[in-house]
Amino acid sequence: MEKKTYLHYLIRSFLTIIVLGFVISVILYVVLFLNQKEWLYQSYKEKAQDEFQQTYTFLQQQINHYKLQLDAIYELSHLKQTPKTNQAFKHLENNMLLNIKSNKHMFQLRYINAKGQEIIRFDRLKNNKIEKKVQLQDKSSRYYFQKTKALSAEKFYVSDLDLNVENKTIERPFRPTIRIAKPIYSDNIFNGLLIINFDAQELVNKIKEIKEFDVFCIDLNGNFLLHPNHEKSWSNQLKTDYKAFQEIPNLNNLIENPYWDQNKTYYLRKIQLTDNDFYILYALKKSLYTQQLNELQFEMLRLFFIIGILGLPLAMFSAYVQSSKTILLDNIINNIPHPIYIKDTNGDFKIINQALLEFLGFAHKKDLINKNSYEVIKDNTPINSNEKDKKALEKGDLRTIEKYVSKDNNEYYFEIIRVKIQYFTLFYKTYLLGIAIDITEIKRSNQELTQKVTNEVNNRMLTERLLIQQSKMALMGEMIGNIAHQWRQPLSVISTSATGIKIQKELEMLNDQFLLDTLDAINNSVQHMSRTIDDFRDFFKPHKSKNAFQLCDAIAKAISLVKPQYVNHDILIIEALEDTKLYNLQNEFTQALLNILNNARDELIKHKHQRRLIFIKSHLCEDKKNVHLIIQDNAGGIPPQIIDKIFDPYFTTKQESNGTGIGLYMSKQIIEEHMEGVLKAQNRVFEYEDVEYTGACFEIILPISTQKQELL
C-alpha cells in the first residue's frame, strides 16, 4: 500500500479517536457534574435536617415555657373559682404583673371573661415599661377567643406566627407574635381565658440566621411568612400577594418529598405546633453553592486535562493499531476474487473491493465510494437490484442465482448473497453486505450431472421394467404347465363327447337330446379353457395402470394360476380373508403373490413326510387406511443366515437352472416402490389343529387407496 494511503488511514483513525474521546469526556463530565450536584445536595441534607430539628425544638420550648407561665397564674390565682370580689381580682392582677415583668419577651398579658371582654390587661411598651391598660376592648369576635373557648380545660390554644394587630391595624414597626391562651373553667362552665402575646422576633432570628441557607416560612396557602427579601415577608397580612408557588415551581413535589428537589437547591419541613401548620424551607445560598460547584468543576477539568495529556500517546497507539487493522481488512477484501460491496440503506457504496471495480469496469474506488449504486451503474448487472436489496433488508438475508450476459454474448451465472448488517458506532446503523460468487462452471457441471442422472434414472427404470418382465417370463413356464394340466380334463371331455357322438351316429342311435347335452358339455369345456387363456394373457400384459379391484378377487386369481401344482403336491391352502376394495396395480400385485406362493411351494415340496399347508389371511388395519395380508407356510422357515438376503437381486438357494434370484426382489420392489406398501419376512412358530409348526411368514401392508379420489 502507498505511504500516502497509510498516512491517510493513520490520521483519520487518530482524529476519530480524539473526537470520540472528546465526546466521551464531555458526556462523562456532564454525568460527573450532575453526580457532584447530587452529592453536594445530599451532603447539605444532614445539615438541613439538624437545623430543622433545632428550630423545631426551640419553638416547642418557647411555647411550652409560656404554657407553664399560664398554668402558674391559673394555679396561684385560684381561677378554678371565678373571681368575684375586688380582692380576688387584685390577687389575679398581681400575679399577672409579676409574670409580665419577669419575661422580657412577653409584651401583652390579658384576662378576658366569658363574654369576650378584657378585664385585666398589661402591655409592655417600646421603652420596656409595663402599663396596665384602662381602655379595655371587646375581643369576643377575635379568632383566638373563639378557638380557645371551644377547647377543654386542659388544652392550650397556640396561634399562628403573624404580625401583632392593635385596633384592627398592624402594629409598626412590625412585631412578630405568637398568642398562647388557656381556657378557664369553674364547675365545667367556661368563665374566660388567660392569653399571652409574646414577641417572636428572637424566634424569627433563630429561624433565619443560618449561615448555609436562605430561609423561607410558608403557610399552607403558599403565602410567605418569612422571606430572605424582607419586602416579600408577611405577604398575606400585608396584601402584597407574593406566592411561594410562583417563586418555587416545584413546591408541591417538595411537600410530597421534603428532601428531594429536582433542582438540588431546596429542603423542606412541615411544622405542626401552631393553630395552622406551616412550612420551613431552606435554600442553599447561591454564593456558597456556586463557589463549591466551581471548585468541583475546576477539579474535574484539571483531572480531565491530566487524563487528556496522558491519553495522547495511547490515542496515537490506538490509531496505529486501528489503521493497521483497517489496512489489513482492505487487503483481505481486495484479495478476495469475488466482487464484494457494502452499501447503506440508501444504496450508497461504503466499501468495495478490486474485483467489483473490474467487474463493473471502473478504474478507481473513488468513482464508486459514497456514490449511489442505482444511479452510477446504469447496466442491468446482477448485483445492482434496488428491489432485491430492499427485500434483503426486510428479511435479513437473501440468496439468488442471477444470469448475466456479457457484452460479447457469453452467459455467466452468479450466486448473489445479500446480508443485512447492523453496526453500532455512536448510533445504530444498518448496512447491506453483498457478495457475487461466479458459479458458471458449477452451473454447467450441474447441468451435465443432471443430464447424466436423468439418463441413469431412465436406464434404471428400463432395467427395472425388463426385470419385471423377466420375472413374468420366469413364471411363464410354470404357468404353461399349469394351463396344460387344467386343459387335460376339458380336452378329455371334448374327446370323449366327440367319440360318443360319432359311435352313436354310426349305429344310428343318436338322438337330439343326447346331441344337445353332449354339445353343451363340449361348449362348457371350451369356455373353461378360454377363461384360463384370458387369465394367463391378462397377467402378462406389460402395463402399470392402477385400477380398483377386490383383494379377494386378486388373491383368487393368483391361487387359480398355481392351484394345479398345489393339488399335484398335496398342498392345502387355508384362507381367512376380509375382503377389501383397493385402488392400485392389480397385475403387479398378482405377480408379487405368485412369486411368494411359488417360493412357498418349492420349500414345501422338500418336506415329503409332513402335512403341507399354506395360510392366507387378511384384515383391515386399525387406522382404516391400510390392509394387512399374511402368507404363511409350514416348511420349517428361512435359515437365519440368509433371511436378511432373500430380497436381494439375484440371490437364490436353488440350482442355477431352477431359479433366477429375482422373484422375491421384484415382489419387494412392486409392493414398496410401485404400490407404496410394505413387504417383510420372518420365521414364526404356530399351532394348527393341535400340531406345532414352524414356517416362513410374509407380511404385506398396502394402502387402501393411492389417489383416485380416495377410492370414492
Describe the protein in words.
It is a single chain. The chain is α+β, with helices and mostly antiparallel strands and 712 residues long. The chain has five domains: 3-51 and 286-329, no CATH class; 52-284, PAS domain (Beta-Lactamase), CATH 3.30.450.20; 340-438, 2-Layer Sandwich (Beta-Lactamase); 441-542, Orthogonal Bundle (Helix Hairpins); 543-712, Histidine kinase-like ATPase, C-terminal domain (Heat Shock Protein 90), CATH 3.30.565. The relative contact order is 0.05. The mean pLDDT is 81. It catalyses: ATP + protein L-histidine = ADP + protein N-phospho-L-histidine. Its EC number is 2.7.13.3. Residues 325-396 form the PAS domain. InterPro entries: HATPase_C_sf (IPR036890), HATPase_dom (IPR003594), His_kinase_dom (IPR005467), HisK_dim/P_dom (IPR003661), HisK_dim/P_sf (IPR036097), PAS (IPR000014), PAS-like_dom_sf (IPR035965), Sensor-like_sf (IPR029151).
N-to-C span: 77 Å
Proportion in β-strands:
15-25%
Shape: elongated
Q: How many discrete structural domains?
A: 5
Q: CATH superfamily assignment of the largest domain? A: PAS domain
By DSSP, the count of extended strands is 25
Annotated CATH topology of the largest domain: Beta-Lactamase
Mean pLDDT: 81
Q: Helix fraction?
A: 40-55%
CATH architectural group of the largest domain? 2-Layer Sandwich
What is the class of the largest domain in the CATH system? Alpha Beta
Sheet with most strands: 7 strands, antiparallel
Output the number of helix runs.
16
Rg over CA atoms: 60 Å
Pfam family, one: HATPase_c
Keywords: ATP-binding, Cell membrane, Kinase, Membrane, Nucleotide-binding, Phosphoprotein, Transferase, Transmembrane, Transmembrane helix, Two-component regulatory system
Catalytic activity: ATP + protein L-histidine = ADP + protein N-phospho-L-histidine
Membrane topology: Multi-pass membrane protein
